[in-house]
Amino acid sequence: QVQLVESGGGLVQPGGSLRLSCAASESIFRTNAMGWYRQDPGKQRELVAGITTGGVTKYDESVKGRFAISRDNAKNTLYLQMNSLKPEDTAVYYCNVSPRVLAKALGVWGQGTQVTVSS
């Protein structure tokens, strides 16, 4: 059974930092590129950062230079270090396989973790 469990969200002031974690099932983590997605109410879920099994990373322009994605293959865990947070980063953050078309095909999502950036 595929499981994705996100954690680490919270309320932070603009300019602050958070580190998100995602514990994933070995069955999908070891052989897939992974990504962090975010979703605002009423908007489509968007991929903001991705990482291949070999550690090559890619970022959406909106987070480039502020966010850093990483993975620990021994622990089947995905991370997202978020720095210089902005109010527009407020969203529910999810992890899943990447790219989005594969995540949609997988059809499984975790509960997500809420990130709120506000003064």
Q: Which features does this protein show?
A:
119 residues; 10 strands; four-stranded antiparallel sheet; globular
The residue fraction in helices comes out at: under 10%
Outline the biggest β-sheet: 6 strands, mixed
Outline type: globular
Order of helices and strands: EEEHEEEEEEHE
- Spatial separation of the terminal alpha carbons: 40 Å
| Class by SSE composition | mainly beta
How many beta-strand runs?
10
What fraction of the residues are assigned to beta strands by DSSP? 35-45%
Description of the structure:
This protein has two helices and ten strands, in the order βββαββββββαβ. The chain is mainly beta. It has a six-stranded mixed sheet with strand order 2-10-9-4-5-6. A four-stranded antiparallel sheet has the order 1-3-8-7. The protein is globular. The mean pLDDT is 96.
What's this model, at a glance?
The protein is mainly beta.
Write the layout of secondary structure elements.
Blueprint: E1 4-7, E2 10-12, E3 18-24, H1 26-29, E4 34-39, E5 46-51, E6 57-59, E7 67-72, E8 77-82, E9 91-97, H2 100-106, E10 113-117
